[in-house]
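Please check both lines for our workbook:

___
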Amino acid sequence: IIIRNNILNSNNKSNGIILNQNPAGTSNVTIYNNLIMNTNMAAIALLNLFNLNFMENDMPIAAENGKKLVLAVEDDAFLASIHKNKMAKEGFEIFVAGNGREALEFLKTRKPDIILLDLIMPVMDGFETLKEIKANPETKDLKVVVLSNLSQEEDKQRVMDMGALDYVVKANVSFREIVEKVKAYIEIK
């Protein structure tokens, strides 16, 4: 199976995924890309190959009565798609904002049970987003867990002082552990 996207770089080289199945029944996957900015496109195509649907940031999964709402603020499309799929499979309603500005716009209409906030993002970073969330009387009591690959103690202390509930280094935890933390923080048994 060969999957290629239609975006060509200046050298007319495309990006894509090759899934090879050999006679022994095992598979290997080759993801190739020639543009760093398109790495996530290949990863999303791989997710789609295995029926893990990627959904655009502005398309929340439909809510059902009694579902807890999680707002994930994550600019990495690959990680955002995993958040959506894992949280939805665990019974959460999930909305993914691609940056802090999108998250603040979302908070004007909905109040999530918990926010998973990345720190390094375009448009508005997580530090400024957290500052605005905690400065607004309508959102100041929302639970915010920072998920970042910044591992400096100063960064952790800064967001904890700003009112974050927890600081989790992404590279140190699995998505299963993130789901369990979310459940614990919003008291789901």
